[in-house]
Each structure stands twice: as structure tokens, then as C-alpha cells.
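Notes continue from the previous slide.

Worked example: a multi-chain complex. Inputs as given:
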Amino acid sequence: MTGPRLRLTREERRSQMLEVATDVFYERGYDQASLQEIATRMGLLKGSLYYYIDSKEDLLFDVIRTAHDELFDEVAGLAAGPGDAFERLERVIHGHVGWICAHLRWTRVFLHELRSLPVPRRQEVLASRHPYQTLLRTLILEAQRTGLARPDVHPPLAALTLLGALNWSYRWFTPNGESKPAAIAATIADLTLHGLRLPPQRA
Amino acid sequence: MTGPRLRLTREERRSQMLEVATDVFYERGYDQASLQEIATRMGLLKGSLYYYIDSKEDLLFDVIRTAHDELFDEVAGLAAGPGDAFERLERVIHGHVGWICAHLRWTRVFLHELRSLPVPRRQEVLASRHPYQTLLRTLILEAQRTGLARPDVHPPLAALTLLGALNWSYRWFTPNGESKPAAIAATIADLTLHGLRLPPQRA
């Protein structure tokens, strides 16, 4: 084991596989994608993929779960940071839009190919979305409890409204377009958080 | 031509074909859907479909265009109605959510299978989305011009934020679920319109 390291570690190879699979699922759609093409783009024989996964379905599941976990970890960190509920919601909005705009293909595969998973695995992914909605709902509830947010807004529906505004950016954002992620996030925060905020009480 | 009319008119048959095709595209995905299955569900021979369309791609294009046009017509009517810009935006929000919740399969096929169209037809559909965004943007601009809305909000991004909040409902709304379309629309209007509205000036 001397000399330059020419081989990727197992973990590096796995990351590469998920990246390449995301590209192929994005470009061809899951139905038309083949493990053969994924292996070829990685410079491997198809048989080598079975060291990491058992089937194409396994690979889609890994791509979708990894996308979800990465976004969730990033946003959960921001939600647990300092500041009042609105300051944290604003950082969550910026983090979410930033992640989506930096991982457009991953987001699209996640949102469009979930239905290609068989029902039990789809349910497993859908169940893992609940913690994310709970995170948003909890921040909105905290904003209400601390007297910062209007009490007449229904937190679960407000969380879904915010989630829709956030996730929609994957459909129209283009890296070279006019609108940058920070401006998109600022507008979403402006509209939804301003809409949620209780006007300051008059003296 | 006496006696009960047993045959559908051409127009009725065409509507039926679009409904059935939407179901099959929704259930199987475009790639796996077959004209044979669509014809069988309609009680027709496959060859009869060619009286209405030239190919499966034609049929997807018709489904997508029809969905878009119906939603646009409904919302354009509401946008042109009486009242100030905020009153009309609120009716647009209710109309849009109501249409989506009543046409979940159509919305899903529209949003997910657009990519199955070849580029020129996809561009044609995408171009037809501009009038819809323009409609929202125009109402937001009018609200700003008439002194009702905050002037510091960027109308194109605000329109896309609103569109995201509206369209997202297709992903989680279920007809028998707890949240009814009117409650969903009210929350979206509450957050986004309240966020857009300029606070009343103090005397």
C-alpha cells in the first residue's frame, strides 16, 4: 500500500455511484435508466455495482434517501441554531432553497421518481418526510407561543404552504438565470414570514 | 336518427378519451402506458383512437394542453372580475386550489410527464405557462400601483412563490383528508397576501 492511491475507497465509490445514478435517472427517467449505463459512466463493469446494491430499485431508494437525509440534516442544524423562531425560520428558508438550487437533479429525481419505488419503500420515504414537516410546524408553533406570529394561522397548513413555495424553485430555477438562490429565498421569506408575523403592538 | 342516442358525439368521445388517457398515464406513467389499454377501457378497438390522434405522444400533448387551458380559463375569469387587486388575487387562489384538488390526476400528469414530450412540444407548453405567471404578476403589480401592496417585493419572484404554494397542494391533498380545498386556499391567501399587503397607514 505505498505509492499514489489510484483506487477510490468504498465510501468514495458509493458517493460517485449515487451522483452518476442521479444523472442517469434524471436524464432518462427511472424506467429507461439502466445499471449498464451507470456502470459504464463510472468506468466499471456492471457486475461491480452489485458490490454496493442488489438492484436498480435499491439504487433509486439510496438516491432518494440520501437526498432527503442531506437536506434534512442541513435544515435541522439551522432550525436548532440561535435566535427567535422567525430568525431560525428565515435561515431554514435560505438553507432549503440553497440546497435545492445546488442539487437540482437530485431534487427532481426525489420528487418525480418516488412513485417508481414499490409501496413499502415509498411509504418509508414518505414517513421520513414527516420529521421535516414537523420541524417547520414546530418553528411556526414556537413563533405563535412566543407571541411573534398570528395565532389564527393553522400551523400544519402554514408549514405545507411554506414547503410548496420552497420546493417549487426546483421547477424553474436555472443556475445561469437572473434570480439567485439568495434572492429567491428572500422573497419567499418576505411573503410567508411577513404574512405570519403579528404586527408590533402599539404602545 | 330516431330513438335513443346510443353513440357519443365526436366531442364527447374526445373528452372521454382525455379522461381515460389521464387515468392510464397517471397509473402507469407515460412510458408504460399503451394506446391499447386506453382503447380497451373506452370499449373501443385501438384503431378507433386514430380518428382523434396520430400517436401516444399526440394524446399526452392533448391531455397536458387541455389541463393547462382549463385551469387558465378558470383563473383568468376570476382575475378579470370585480374588486381590488387583493380581492381578485384571493379569488384566483381559491379557484386555482379548487381546480387542482378536483383534477389531481390531470395535474400530476401535467407536472410530471411534460418531460416525456419532445422538446418543441414541451417548449410550446412551457410558453403557454408564461401567460399564467403574467396574470399573477400583473395582479401583484396592480396591487403595488394602487398602493395596497408593499413596493419592495419583486413581482416575478412573488408570483413564483405564490405559484409554488398553490401547485404544491397536488402532492399532499387527498379528497378524504382533513384539509378541504377552501381551508388550504385560505391559509395560502392568509400567508402570501397578508405578507404582500402594505399595513394600513396611521392617521
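Summary box: The mean pLDDT of chain B is 91. The longest helix of chain B spans residues 119-145.
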